[in-house]
Amino acid sequence: MAITRAMVDSLQAAGALTYVPRLRTIMSDDITITVAAYAHGFRALEAGGPRGPYAFANKHLPLPLDQLIDPASPWLVAHSTRVGMDGEPESEIRGRARAERAAWGD
Fold first, then answer.
1. Which of 2, 16, 59, 86 lies 20 to 30 angstroms, CA to CA, from 37?
2. Cβ-Cβ contacts under 8 Å for 49 (sequence gap 6 or more)
């Protein structure tokens, strides 16, 4: 998630950065910040997915492993490697990524 300085300043001025929730919630920080952005007159832009600057997914890699480790791919980092889109276990993902990185050389 990328947040502009103007949004942070707006949240600070409204006291929203020191907000203490009164109720327990299962909302993630991403959703909470997006709701706050709209509440303060900002909007969320699409940044995830194969055509955006980021590729996001929940609980698996955002793209097939072959696309992520392809040297011609625009993708540089995979944050979570819990499971691949096609069900590959973390050990396979890490092993293949390690082998590809070694093949790239210095």
1. 59
2. 55, 56, 62
Higher-confidence residue of 4 and 54: namely 4
Please name the residues in contact with 3: beta carbons below 8 A apart, sequence gap of 6 or more: 33, 37
Cα–Cα distance measured from residue 21 to residue 91, given in angstroms and rounded to the nearest whole number: 38
Tell me the C-alpha distance between 44 and 88, whole Å: 32
Q: At residue 37, what are phi and psi to the nearest 5 degrees? A: -60, -50
List the Cα angle 10/30/98 in 5-degree steps: 130
Mean pLDDT of the chain: 78
pLDDT per residue as tens digits for the range 67-106? 777 777 766 666 667 788 888 888 888 888 888 777 776 5
